[in-house]
Design goal:
Elements: E1 5-16, E2 19-30, E3 33-38, H1 45-58, E4 65-68, E5 72-77, E6 80-85, E7 92-95, E8 99-102, E9 109-117, E10 132-135, E11 138-145, H2 151-160, E12 185-188
Parallel strand pairs: 3-9, 3-12, 4-12, 9-11
Antiparallel strand pairs: 1-2, 5-6, 6-9, 7-8, 10-11
């Protein structure tokens, strides 16, 4: 666990039936860090962002707010990767079947996790090297998600589960009282 971590997961394993989707994942998320969702056009970035917002509203994960959809600006600053919405797209998200909708948003966040949709290197048991990405010289934890795989359960599992061996205490800001939640903010690129 790093000194500033509010969530620390070590050795996370997750199965869906016989399918072992996460193996020995280590992840530290510091206070104020957020999630970036990336992938090619049509891969479901906006859909996953909106699903995570809804999951936050329903209490499955802590409240979640959008940074930006479609285009965001990334900047390395002080050893952290910052994300900001494109000014002309602030507060807008595409909801398939409804079009462009207005949504609550934040103007800036620190990136703490990258969800890589339709990742060519997504594997059932990804090697450790695939679980990290360098953006603008900053190393960020990464979850590669295959195009045919439903991203939402995988992301929620990564945000809310652990193997139970590395959690010493319930975090003060844990809404559910099980100590492994973060307060995600979303940006799609």
């Amino acid at each position: 666990m790093t000194e500033n971590a509010i969530v620390s997961i070590s050795g996370l394993n997750k199965w869906y039936g016989e399918f072992h989707v996460l193996r020995d994942i280590d992840l530290d998320v510091a206070r104020g860090e957020r999630i970036v969702i990336c992938g090619p056009s049509g891969s479901g970035k906006s859909q996953l962002a909106f699903q995570l917002i809804l999951a936050g509203r329903s209490g499955q994960i802590p409240p979640t707010v959008l940074v930006g959809d479609d285009r965001v600006h990334l900047q390395a600053s002080g050893g952290q990767l910052m994300v900001r919405p494109a000014p002309t797209l602030e507060g807008l998200i595409e909801v398939r079947g409804l079009g462009i909708r207005r949504c609550a948003f934040t103007s800036e966040a620190i990136v703490g996790l990258v969800i890589d949709l339709a990742a060519g290197d997504a594997e059932r048991l990804p090697p450790r090297a695939a679980l990290e990405i360098s953006i603008r010289g900053i190393s960020i934890p990464r979850i590669p998600v295959a195009a045919e795989f439903a991203a939402l359960p995988l992301v929620i599992a990564a945000l809310t589960t652990g193997d139970g061996t590395q959690i010493d205490r319930v975090l003060d800001n844990c809404v559910k009282g099980i100590s492994n939640h973060i307060r995600p903010t979303l940006a799609t690129e």
